[in-house]
Amino acid sequence: MDDCPFCAIIRGDADAWIVHETPTALAFFATGPAAEYHTLVVPKCHHADLFAIPSDEWLGVSAAVKDVADLYRERLGIENVEVLNHSGEHAQQDVFHLHVHILPRREGDGQDTSWTDHPEIEKRFDALLAALKA
Prior knowledge:
This protein has about 130 residues and is of the alpha+beta class. It contains 3 helices and 5 strands, in the order H-E-E-E-H-E-E-H.
């Protein structure tokens, strides 16, 4: 897509600090990073989100995520990472080209990606599962 910032990086029309590349995925440092080595992994073909990407292409993206995490562990000794994807406006997706964040974590880093537990939902598990199987 012409107006997609990640497609511009993939085409070589925009600057990026490339960490890792495969035939189907590209990993680069995130601008406005939340931590050192905060990295985005994107498919080279434009797909808006997790729902839009074919499963075989998703496997290539997820393999690249693992490659980058392993690289950071082997070269930098990073032992803690958070892997995040936001798919959809209400999931806080801001660039509508599928991307996976790799966020190295360390004690006291000031990041908080916790959520609120809703244990009352457990009482509805049978109904939730039935809806999936209907």
